[in-house]
Design brief:
402 residues, alpha/beta, Rossmann fold, 2 domains, 7-stranded parallel β-sheet, 12% strand, globular
Length: 402
């Protein structure tokens, strides 16, 4: 049995196609067009059962697949992939392979652990937090987290994952009256897509929600993102409209008061040591609130012991078998993979334009890039029309699914 059949035998028992309509559409198309034939493709999305749907689409497109392991994984899935002959590799192992002259063609990265590699064609970075590792890249780098598509995962899926993880650990379980999280005081640090998604999910569950953010950066961030054709990352206005109390991160008296009264505190700034300010340490150490992190980095800082934070400061939703439901990450994973196809197409066109000179073609295309709007709209249309969460996406975007 080949790898494509093996992946299908596992996934088809667990998921319906309306949970991953965008990836299913790519798989159908690529089974015919085979855009990755002859190419070694390293995929570094977190290794879980639901991300195997992305592997399957790439394999259907002819990719010689490698799976990048940066430590965020389901060990059973890691073993499964290795058992069926797929190399599961670390950044150090790939750098060692490069020293022997073994290079991949494409890297589909997540949060930048494989940014030091030298693929023949280029990179696609899935997260915004990983962009910092690609500022000096010598190859083209598409950033998947720069438009509407990623909001489905971060604004809808991550908030859902935070509360599912709390419930799995025994918090907020419904009592005899079905109250659940009703009336609980939730404090969220960060007002980007993830923080806002958690906050709005908290509102829907009846929490009294406050968000701490850097209000002074709002206008600057908007102007910078506009200049770079990227959407603003702060959703403070939407939060206020939904009854969320928004507080500036420099108002330490107000922030400390919120920490002391909170039932749940969660960090989602995307910034390492974001809460390490000395002015906050006493409140964080003494609070009886349930502390959690939903970012890749340790946002609490060294002064806060790992044992005081759920999942030892790791992203809380990764205690789950499925950290984010497939239905919420389908479009993100599809965009991640589709941008790899676009890099292949561009590389072929550039080589032809340079008279077959691949080196000059690569030099002309170095740097960060953002997804074409028409590609995102095409994937969104598929997700809305064919996906189980079509109505949720429409609600997020502010229009009717009818």
């Amino acid at each position: 049995m080949d790898l494509l059949s093996i992946l299908s035998s596992v996934l088809d028992e667990v998921y319906e196609k309306n949970e991953y309509p965008a990836l299913a559409a790519l798989q159908r198309k690529w089974s015919e067009t085979r855009p990755f034939d002859g190419l070694r493709v390293l995929v570094a999305t977190p290794i879980f059962r639901n991300t195997m749907t992305q592997y399957r689409a790439l394999v259907a497109g002819g990719a010689d697949l490698l799976v990048g392991n940066s430590g965020i994984n389901d060990a059973d899935v890691v073993d499964f992939m290795a058992e069926w002959g797929v190399p599961v590799v670390t950044p150090a192992e790939m750098l060692e392979a490069e020293s022997r002259g073994e290079f991949v063609d494409l890297v589909l990265d997540c949060a930048g652990p494989f940014a030091s590699l030298h693929p023949k064609i280029g990179f696609v970075e899935l997260t915004r937090s990983g962009v910092q590792y690609y500022k000096e890249a010598k190859k083209p780098v598409y950033v998947a987290d720069s438009g509407i598509v990623k909001r489905i995962e971060t604004s809808l899926g991550t908030g859902d994952g935070y509360f599912r993880a709390l419930e799995q650990l025994g918090y907020g379980t419904s009592d005899a009256d079905g109250a659940g999280f009703e009336g609980e005081r939730l404090l969220v640090f960060g007002s980007g897509k993830v923080g806002s998604g958690i906050a709005l999910q908290g509102v829907r569950r009846g929490c009294v929600v406050s968000v701490v953010t850097d209000l002074s950066r709002l206008q600057l961030e908007k102007s910078e993102n506009f200049a770079n054709s990227m959407p603003a990352g702060d959703f403070s206005a939407v939060l206020v409209q939904n009854g969320v109390n928004v507080v500036d991160c420099r108002d330490y008296a107000a922030v400390n008061a919120l920490i002391e009264k909170a039932d749940f505190v969660v960090t989602a700034t995307g910034v390492k040591n974001a809460l390490a300010a000395q002015e906050l340490q006493k409140s964080l150490l003494s609070t009886s609130a349930v502390l959690a992190n939903m970012g890749v980095e340790d946002e609490y800082g060294e002064a806060i012991p790992a044992e005081k934070v759920l999942n030892a400061k790791g992203p809380l939703n990764f205690v789950l078998e499925e950290p984010t439901h497939l239905k919420y990450i389908d479009t993100s994973l599809a965009l991640h993979a589709a941008l790899a196809e676009l890099l292949v197409q561009e590389a072929k066109s550039a080589v032809l334009g340079e008279g077959g000179n691949a080196e000059n073609a690569n030099a002309a295309s170095v740097g960060l890039r953002f997804p074409p709007q028409e590609l995102e709209q095409r994937l969104l249309s598929i997700a809305i029309q064919e996906g189980v969460i079509g109505p949720e996406i429409c609600g997020m975007l502010g229009f009717s699914a009818e």
